[in-house]
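Quick check before the chapter quiz. The format below is the same one you will see on the exam, so make sure you can read both the input and the output lines.
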Amino acid sequence: MYRRFIYSFFIVFLCNILLYSARSHAQSSSQTLLEGMALLDDGSNKRDYDQILEARALFEKVTKVDSLSIWAHYYAATASSAVANMIDEGLIENGRRDLADHINTGIKHLEAAVKIDPSFADGWVLLATSYAHKISVRPFKIIGLRRKYNRSISLALELEPNNPRVILLQGIMDYFLPGIAGGNKERAEERINQAIAIFEEENITHPYRPKWGHDTAYARLGVIYMDRGDLVKARKALVRSLELNPEFGWVLQELLPNLEELESQT
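Here is the expected output.
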């Protein structure tokens, strides 16, 4: 009887230890993910290459945690995309030799994310933009990549046609893709304005779901107006972008100085 009691007590004690360990690990992993998200936001604002890579390393630490893996893969891909864009903008010395690797890393993470949840529209649309980016780096692979791009963007739109990030990214690609590849500058402006209208009503409370895009939409609108020579509208768009995100490095360091130079010439 005594032995049975001791054995039962030991089993309960061991189960409690395992449960506590699992909870502690989940909390630690969640903290790592949130820390990475904050680091990514700050690094993206500052356009800090090393900080963005540090954030990606944190995300990759929790890709094996089942409850967090889809978000870890998504944000690791977002970090890869941010670095690839910085390389394209010439912000990283000798960065072009690593450009394809960053794009491929992003694609790998996004393909893992949409495999976990095939209904993840934010993952599909970011994957589409990554395929489009890879086409610009590996144009000889355009046939296979264009097929993957079309499938990804179609799925994103089918799953969440009113997702503002889906609409925004489609608009951005419309603006920069040549007409022969399906681009359309007028349609791009319409889609970005459509995304802005939806962003105004969006209210996301989930701690990990993507929330980005509202400030970027206004910044992209500013680019369109500057290219068109409508500097008054461009300034309004960029000012609104900074109202939403006062630390937005792309606007502060590049777009506003470019606008001021154009304004000085008129």
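If your answer matched, good. The radius of gyration is 22 Å.
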